[in-house]
UniProtKB/TrEMBL annotation:
The keyword Transcription does not apply. GO terms for biological process: glyoxylate metabolic process. It comes from the Bacteria. The keyword Zinc-finger does not apply. The active site is at residues 143, 240. This is Hydroxypyruvate isomerase. Residues 21-255 form the Xylose isomerase-like TIM barrel domain. Keywords: Isomerase, Pyruvate. One of its GO terms (molecular function) is hydroxypyruvate isomerase activity. Belongs to the hyi family. It comes from Thermosporothrix hazakensis. Pfam families: AP_endonuc_2.
Length: 270
């Protein structure tokens, strides 16, 4: 059974961040995902999750100022202390939230630092973080992004991430497959799901082009989600898109009881 969660860092922006947990629950969602909320909001996030009885399907490690284009800093020799001080705090928050996985964005390419040095730092930091995450019972996922909107991000295809995962070689490090990004870069969504589902730890959706809700672009989401059910995918599908109108209206394609555990046959998609 395909399960959906809502990314409250990109959706439900009609209300302030800490009110989005309540709003997600009011709209029928049983699960959320979020980018790193900041150390100063960590305790408040835990309170909101518990108060509204939500699951947290995914949380990002601190990736810097996402709105300004930052995409992590695992590759930055000047930020190593920052990352390694952050990881224990992120794991503590994940445990407090009951969050089973953390997304590690590896960082934009840096001018003045050799690419091999950057690749080595990403590898070393992922191994270091994965070993600590394993002791906490937490999985790490690594995402590929499209190069049109993220021109300096080094992981832009499925093969890029899987090659890195092969090198890291840790069972608790898997692929975060964002269908929107990979439709823009390589297509072949169903073939990728069929071939690599066992290596995927989380899936995110948005339609392409536009990065709006499913049903607004070229992707046949009913077929994709039916295939996920056929493949017996049992993890979450995260809604990570920019709503074309309002967040609430953008959920109209989900069945009335929606969000949490749903029957794909009832999705309002052509």
């Amino acid at each position: 059974m395909v399960q959906f969660d809502v990314n409250i860092s990109i959706l439900l922006k009609e209300v302030p961040f800490l009110e989005r947990f309540r709003r997600a629950a009011e709209l029928g969602f049983g699960a959320v995902e979020l980018w790193w909320p900041g150390d100063e909001q960590a305790d408040a996030v835990v309170r909101q999750v518990r108060e509204h009885g939500l699951q947290v399907a995914l949380m990002n490690f601190d990736a810097g100022d996402m709105a300004a284009g930052e995409r992590g800093f695992l590759n930055d020799p000047a930020q190593q202390e920052r990352f390694r001080e952050h990881v224990p705090r992120a794991l503590d928050l994940a445990r407090a939230l009951g969050c089973p996985r953390l997304n590690a964005l590896v960082g934009n390419r840096l001018a003045g630092v050799g690419e091999e040095e950057q690749r080595t730092l990403v590898y070393e930091n992922l191994v270091w973080a994965a070993d600590r995450a394993a002791r906490a019972g937490v999985e790490i996922v690594v995402e590929s992004l499209n190069s049109f909107e993220n021109p300096r991000y080094p992981l832009t295809t499925t093969a890029d991430v899987l090659d890195l995962l092969d090198r890291v070689n840790r069972p608790n490090v898997r692929y975060q497959y964002d269908i929107y990004h990979m439709q823009r870069m390589e297509g072949n969504i169903l073939a990728t799901l069929r071939k690599h589902l066992a290596r995927i730890g989380h899936i995110q959706v948005a339609d392409s082009p536009g990065r709006h809700e499913p049903g607004t672009g070229e992707l046949h989401y009913r077929h994709i989600l039916e295939e996920l059910e056929r493949l017996d995918y049992r993890l979450f599908v995260g809604l990570e898109y920019n709503p074309r109108t309002t967040s609430e209206e953008s959920f109209a394609w989900l069945p009335a009881e929606k969000k949490g555990s749903n029957s794909v046959s009832r999705l309002r998609l052509l």
